Amino acid sequence: MLNQKQKRLITALITTTTVKEALQKANVSNRSYYNWLDNKEFVDELNYVQQQVYNDCVMDIRNLSKNAVKLYEKLMKSDNESIQLRAAISIINNAGKFLEIKIHPSHIKEEPKKTLFQEIDELTALLEESGWELSEKGVN
Question: Measured between alpha carbons, how far is 46 from 77 in angstroms, rounded to an integer?
Answer without folding.
Answer: 47
